[in-house]
């Protein structure tokens, strides 16, 4: 049986096809973004505790709280914080993305899809959302999933797991030559991915 990556991860500047890296991608990327944003906001307020906060500022506070809970494994609490952040700032892509990860892990696929779509509406090049949305759309809309993988690859051409999944998808759609080309590309980028490809395809990929 052909297996497909279930999530996207990130470490040391490289995307990885491993479930266990998903939360690391979220935490490391968001710590930098949210803390920096909060520092700018506090500076703009002059550090005055009595200054009224904008909805964006309140959303960032909730985002940080959600991130802390998410990292600690308190996903229900994190989901609540992310949802509150989204209510205050509907275009907050980080809150949508993190909430989507929790929903996807919990099998709430329709909700996760809605959050990932909100992310790519705000940021069309958000690779994690494109990749995970492609996974969710594979069964019901393979052509759309293939397009999403191609969009992710356009942003990150050396993302081996996206080439791998796209290759499996295209072969399943009857586009064997194009699919094999994607598998070959995946293996050329990340040779260990050959272990996830059935032997006949591996033989071709190694040529």
Give structural attributes.
Serine Threonine Protein Phosphatase 5, Tetratricopeptide repeat; 2 domains; elongated; 3% strand; 68% helix; mainly alpha; two-stranded antiparallel sheet; disordered N terminus; 207 residues; single chain
Your description of this structure?
The protein folds into 2 domains: 8-112, no CATH class; 124-207, Alpha Horseshoe (Serine Threonine Protein Phosphatase 5, Tetratricopeptide repeat), CATH 1.25.40.10. It contains 10 helices and 2 strands, in the order E-E-H-H-H-H-H-H-H-H-H-H. 68% of the residues lie in helices and 3% in strands. It has a two-stranded antiparallel ribbon. It has 207 residues and is mainly alpha-helical.
Cα Rg: 19 Å
Distance between the amino and carboxyl termini: 22 Å
Spatial order of strands in the largest sheet: 1-2
Decide which structural class fits the backbone. mainly alpha
Number of strands: 2
Element order: H for helix, E for strand: EEHHHHHHHHHH
- pLDDT < 50 stretches: 1-47
Beta percentage is under 5%
């Amino acid at each position: 049986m052909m297996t497909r990556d279930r999530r996207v991860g990130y470490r040391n500047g490289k995307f990885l096809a491993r479930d266990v890296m998903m939360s690391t991608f979220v935490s490391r990327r968001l710590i930098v973004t949210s803390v920096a944003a909060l520092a700018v906001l506090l500076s703009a307020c002059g550090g005055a505790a009595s200054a009224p906060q904008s909805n964006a500022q309140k959303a960032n506070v909730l985002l940080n709280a959600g991130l802390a809970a998410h990292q600690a494994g308190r996903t229900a609490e994190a989901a609540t914080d992310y949802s509150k952040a989204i209510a205050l700032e509907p275009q907050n892509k980080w809150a949508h993305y993190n909430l989507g990860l929790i929903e996807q892990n919990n099998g709430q696929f329709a909700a996760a899809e809605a959050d990932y779509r909100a992310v790519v509406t705000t940021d069309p090049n958000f690779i994690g959302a494109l990749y995970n949305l492609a996974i969710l759309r594979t069964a019901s809309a393979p052509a759309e999933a293939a397009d999403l993988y191609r969009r992710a690859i356009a942003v990150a051409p050396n993302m081996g797991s996206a080439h791998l999944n796209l290759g499996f998808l295209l072969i399943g759609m009857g586009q064997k030559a194009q699919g094999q080309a994607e598998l070959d590309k995946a293996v050329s980028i990340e040779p260990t991915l050959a272990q996830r490809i059935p032997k006949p395809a591996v033989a071709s990929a190694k040529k």
